[in-house]
Amino acid sequence: MRPHVVAQLAVSIDGATTGFEADQARFYAMATLWQEDVTLIGADTLLAQESSIRAAIRSGPRGAGPLLAVVDSRHRIHTLEALRDLGYWSGILALYSELTPARSPDSTIPELVTGYDHVDLAETLDLLGRRGAKLVRVDSGGGLLGALIDQGLVDELSLLVHPVLVGDAPRWHDSFSAHLDLSLANVETFLPGVTWLRYCVADSSLEVGETVGGGR
Fold first, then answer.
1. Superfamily of domain 39-133, CATH level 4
2. Between residues 160 and 59, which one has the greater pLDDT?
3. Is the pTM value of this prediction over 0.85?
4. Which residues contact 123 (CB under 8 A, 6 or more apart)?
5. In the 8-state DSSP scheme, what is residue 159?
6. Domain boundaries in the chain?
């Protein structure tokens, strides 16, 4: 059975994902509510943070943390060892396809190969479920989120909306074409005007009003 999939994003009022200063502290504090088994992230998101990842202090893997699964069909990420040691995740799983370029034989990062020219996201989630994952939090926008939505693989949307209009910037909803019927599950406003909107996809097994997280 595939895990419950939550997509979490920080956005402006007009839907931009860049071009404003997001409340990162609140965003990642809220992320702990789901107590995810797996954090799913795309290569583009990590590439934007590559320099800061290389410079960050490495305290080693966090045994009680979630697994970080990185979708990287073209093998563009070369900081996986550093990510593993940042102290947020228990380990790293690299998600590749059959046509992903060859990796270093010295790599110590576990791999999962699915799909031919792109990572098969549905198969990936099924395999993660078989390994015991109950909840996956998507910490990524752009192409990865769009592909998940278009394939009907997202059960919940969590939008941290910031009181700013960005104008000319990428929108989180530009990357998919699917029609989604959503049910509003929660609204909460924080100072200074940041609003949390939580939606459940209409055919999701999670009922409106059900709380996130839950102890494990």
1. Dihydrofolate Reductase, subunit A (3.40.430.10)
2. 160
3. yes
4. 114, 115
5. E
6. 1-37+134-210, 39-133
